[in-house]
Amino acid sequence: MKARNVRYLRPGSVSAALRALQDAGPDAVPMAGGQSLLAALNMRLSSPTHIVDIGDLAELRGIDEADGVVRIGAATRHAEILRSPVIRNRIPLLCDVGAHIAHVAIRNRGTIGGSLAYADPAAEWPATMVALEARIIVASTRGERSIAAEDFFVGLLETALQPGELILRIEAPIPSPDMVTGFGELARRHGDFALVGLVVCTRIDQERLVAPRLVYLGCSDHARTAVHVMDALDKAHVPLADAMLYADALRQDMSPSDIPGLRGDTRMKMAEVLTRRVINSLTRPR
Ligand SMILES: Cc1cc2nc3c(=O)[nH]c(=O)nc-3n(C[C@H](O)[C@H](O)[C@H](O)COP(=O)(O)OP(=O)(O)OC[C@H]3O[C@@H](n4cnc5c(N)ncnc54)[C@H](O)[C@@H]3O)c2cc1C
């Protein structure tokens, strides 16, 4: 199948892109790396009238840090995040996570903003940004707003973005030195979307978890904190001996769906096992 005819626009600045989106109306879409959008167009799951290509806008690319926050431009590619010394030094969790996104060719084109806007519940960046309590800075011709990642994802492939809005950047707080982070996922092959995955940010005090934050991938329709599991694991002794402490809570928080070749209850069991595996592999604060 081929995409419907569409007008392709390539503005030279963010403000021109915002004007183009506004002028073209609600059926215009931005395109960053095109790795998800072009497939959707070709399968006619999406039929916009206009594509506004923002992938090469320098204003939207790059990584820096200021005032305890790492800022990542929306059109920064997955591969650039993996190579960034700022990321490696300040939020190394992103290097662990990003290495699981797809394959080299897709990581070279796909962008963090595109991944967040697409809001696939099995994607790595949305869950990670919720776990890190990052903020997503968006803009339209009406101005800018800053949205907590937890509020940004609202449903299956659905976000708080309004028509005409672009993600400009992500602002992720640099974890404090006593914060421990961990990530794990189970996929059929490395680079495939996760069947289940988990991002953890926590403190550990005298072998007990303190205020852990857990966000699963692929276990619900959008990235959000697993509040009952977090409650069940607060003050839990590590290493965890078994899943008894949190198994019921996990069922309250998550409901992985059946997918071809794998039932939802099997994925739930996988999430249960993965939780213990990730928690027990957390290393102590430096
Ligand atoms: C074979 C394959 C395997 C993949 N495996 C994984 C995986 O394992 N894990 C994973 O996380 N991802 C995976 N992906 C998705 C990949 O990471 C994409 O790069 C990403 O989801 C979309 O980024 P993009 O820059 O290509 O966005 P695009 O395809 O350009 O856009 C995606 C959506 O986001 C919107 N958009 C893009 N940028 C912005 C912005 N700045 N502001 C507002 N809206 C915007 C577009 O309008 C569109 O709706 C895979 C993709 C493929 C093709």
Summed up, what is this model?
The chain has 12 helices and 13 strands. The chain has helices spanning 14-24, 37-42, 78-83, 85-90, 93-98, 104-109, 112-118, 124-131, 149-152, 227-233, 247-253, 264-280; strands spanning 7-9, 28-31, 50-53, 63-66, 69-73, 135-140, 143-148, 153-155, 158-159, 166-173, 179-186, 196-205, 208-217.
Describe this structure in words.
With about 290 residues, the chain is of the alpha+beta class. It contains twelve helices and 13 strands. The chain has helices at about 15-25, 35-40, 80-85, 85-90, 95-100, 105-110, 110-120, 125-130, 150, 225-235, 245-255, 265-280; strands at about 5-10, 30, 50-55, 65, 70-75, 135-140, 145-150, 155, 160, 165-175, 180-185, 195-205, 210-215. It is globular. The N and C termini lie far apart (about 55 Å). The mean pLDDT is about 95. The structure holds flavin-adenine dinucleotide (FAD).
